[in-house]
Design a protein that fits this description.
This protein is of the alpha/beta class and 650 residues long. It is built from 18 helices and 25 strands. The strands form five sheets. The chain has an eight-stranded parallel β-sheet. The model is unreliable at 643-650 (pLDDT under 50). It binds iron/sulfur cluster. Residues 549-552, 554-555, 581-583, 585-587, 590 line the site of iron/sulfur cluster.
Length: 650
């Protein structure tokens, strides 16, 4: 890998990027330490009992580091009571104070807990959302001001052996950074580096860094760029990985896996926090599941190194591919379902894939998560299927039923000159199949689409190598990313597939996905997982996106209930991003690029945003969801939900 693009040890051989060890109490982060699992309490920090009880539930679930919000001096001081109560019960888990805006709270907390987290976007700055112009002189003056605010904290940390996380958030960059770098990955990196340089000048190195965003592409680009910049300056501070406001249930899990998993695949990350709008102890098994895949990754089958990497790791660029039917070119990635293991395929089988059939109208109703292709192997589909659904048969079966769909064939059959379709042929390929003969034939074939698979334990890297080989050979054949899984729970499938496929999609690779899942949950959940992965990697938007904060001691309303309520009335608004944030302190910044925002501003009070602008301030919570709908209507983004006016069978 050329140095200008380098962000990990290798694109083909798994190893963890080595970082310096930072001790947080009795827990080491970085170096050869395991990837640490951490989370954050959601209770009121002044409620010692509730915070201690929740922290214990988290620790018992496997949480190794507990973060607690300290919005002001009084909460910072109460950390001493929380710590004492935990220690008295025999829990020595290190605590972290989460600080925004309040250096004086940080300075108190740093004398009590093992680590403080500061946000360089608001530690010494108030966000004004103003397009301020900075001259070199006024920029330097701002940095001096920050230095003056930061040095006292550094001095306390050094004295008490307290570690620090410099935690950049995409949505809360300072006006200074925005004015110079904009809302970009480089802006996020610079935001942290400004603080890091001050720490280094003071010879303070107990630092962990994070680059969080609710946009998975930004997360991945920013962490990679941070590593690249650190390597240029010969630094190696440990990385804390996370996707902010990932949401709840399967969407939150898939989004976390796409962002965090992509980085873990390349050996980045020393500690992770999965942030879900759920009780924090539920985040722990998700984080553990993401991390445990790397226990046996070293020693995977060798993948030849990549002589020239034409990918762009710090910005999104889609690989150019030829358009074949609705696959490749400018089309969004397709979803292909796997029905080849089904005993019997009936019209009702397609309900799980996003199609519903109306008996009286004799029509298929196509939902936003209707898959585009279905592979049926040697089964014959002998009824009228939805017009938008293409059926793929094994080549030998297709030969006998050509009018019914398109063939799926292996490389040997393809190169043998066997009869193929003049419109679309899906070719099953693994990296070892990729010969010069095959590439030469593909380059002149306007009917071939590759379905790639892997048997390597470092499968994502092997599939990425295949993509890079084709790019280097100027071969634009569209590629469907295929992966097979068996005997997993629905959550395990979501996390594995989102990591394996999301990591490629985030780099602009893939014109479709195919999940072959055996005994991993229902057909519907596999189909939803496929669409969820495309949504989370921002390559195909099929539903409303909710950027909801995980909640913490600052939260001013019941986030889980409110998110569910808002979801129930807006989930049909495809493509819209709605931010649901627990507090005004961080909410507006953290919901980043949401189209509409619902933010707690006081007990029972909500403020509504259109993008970054306040449109209704402090409205009663009981009216807020209705007002949000009105606001969406005013801006022309509302559509009435479809009412099922005719009976569907099944
Ligand atoms: S936005 Fe949510 S998680 Fe972030 S500080 Fe506010 S309440 Fe806590």
């Amino acid at each position: 890998m050329s140095t200008s693009k380098k962000y990990c040890n290798s694109l083909t051989s798994y190893s963890r990027l080595t970082s310096r060890v930072v001790m947080v109490g009795n827990i080491g982060i970085g170096g050869n330490n395991p990837i640490r699992i951490q989370s954050m309490t959601t209770t009121d920090t002044m409620d010692t009992k509730a915070t201690v009880e929740q922290a214990i539930r988290m620790i018992d679930a496997g949480c190794e580091i507990i973060r607690i919000t300290a919005p002001s001096k009084k909460e910072a001081e109460n950390l001493a009571n929380i710590k004492a109560a935990l220690r008295a019960k025999g829990y020595n888990t290190p605590l972290v104070a989460d600080i925004h805006f309040t250096p004086n709270a940080a300075e108190i907390a740093a004398t009590i807990v093992e680590k403080v987290r500061i946000n360089p976007g608001n530690y010494a700055d108030k966000k004004k959302f103003e397009g301020l112009e900075y001259t070199d002189a006024s920029y330097a003056a701002e940095l001096n001001r920050i230095k003056e605010r930061l040095i006292p904290l550094i001095t306390i940390c050094k004295k008490h052996g307290t570690a620090m996380r410099i935690g950049t958030n995409h949505g809360s960059l300072s006006d200074r950074i925005m004015s110079r770098y904009g809302d970009s990955a480089i802006g996020m990196v610079e935001s942290a580096l400004e603080f890091l340089r001050i720490c280094r000048e003071q010879n303070y190195h107990e630092i962990v860094l994070s680059m969080k965003s609710s946009n998975t592409q930004v997360v991945v680009q920013a962490y990679r760029l941070l590593v690249n910049k650190m390597q240029e300056e010969r630094m190696g501070y440990p990385l804390h990985l996370g996707v902010t406001e990932a949401g709840e249930a399967e969407d939150g899990r898939i989004k976390s896996a796409v962002g965090i998993g992509t980085l873990l695949e390349d050996g980045l990350g020393d500690t992770i926090r999965v942030s879900l709008t759920e009780e924090p102890e539920f985040e722990i098994p998700v984080a553990q599941e993401l991390v445990k895949r790397y226990d046996d990754r070293i020693g995977h089958d060798v993948i030849e190194t990549i002589p020239e990497n034409l990918l762009t790791p710090f910005e999104y660029n889609k690989r150019k591919s030829t358009e074949i039917k609705n696959i490749g070119g400018k089309n969004v990635p397709i979803v292909m379902a796997n029905f080849c293991l089904k005993e019997k395929i009936t019209p009702a089988s397609f309900f799980a894939l996003g199609y519903q059939y109306s008996v009286p109208l004799d029509k298929w109703n196509i939902t936003d998560t209707a898959c585009d292709y279905v592979f049926v192997g040697d089964k014959i589909v002998d009824f009228k299927t939805p017009g938008t659904l293409n059926i793929i048969y094994n080549h030998k079966t297709w030969i006998k039923h050509k009018e019914k769909g398109f063939p799926f064939l292996d490389v040997k059959t393809y190169l043998s000159g066997a009869e193929i379709s003049d419109k679309l042929n899906i070719l099953y390929v693994t990296l070892p199949d990729l010969s010069q003969e095959l590439i030469t034939k593909l380059k002149t074939d306007s009917t071939a689409v590759l379905m790639i698979d892997t048997y390597n334990n470092h499968g994502m890297a092997e599939q990425r190598k295949l993509f890079i080989e084709l790019i280097n050979n100027k071969c634009k054949t569209p590629i469907i990313i295929g992966r097979a899984y068996d005997n997993l729970s629905e959550t395990q499938l979501q996390l594995k597939a989102a990591t394996d496929m999301g990591a490629l999609l985030i780099d602009g690779l893939g014109d479709g996905i195919f999940i072959a899942a055996e005994n991993c949950g229902s057909d519907k959940s596999v189909n939803d997982t496929a669409f969820g992965i495309l949504q989370a990697s921002r390559t195909r938007i099929s539903k409303t996106e909710y950027i909801s904060c995980p909640s913490c001691g600052r939260t001013l309303f019941d986030l889980q209930k409110t998110t569910a309520k808002i979801r129930a009335v807006t989930s049909h608004l495809k493509g819209l991003k709605i931010g649901i944030m627990g507090c005004i302190v961080n909410g507006p910044g953290e919901m980043a690029d949401a189209d509409y925002g619902y933010v707690g501003t006081g007990t029972g009070k909500i403020t509504l945003y259109k993008e970054k602008n306040v449109v209704q301030r402090n409205i009663p919570e009981s009216e807020a969801v209705e007002s949000l709908i009105d606001l969406i209507k005013e801006h022309g983004d509302w559509i009435e939900p479809k009412i099922k006016g005719f009976p569907f069978f099944g």
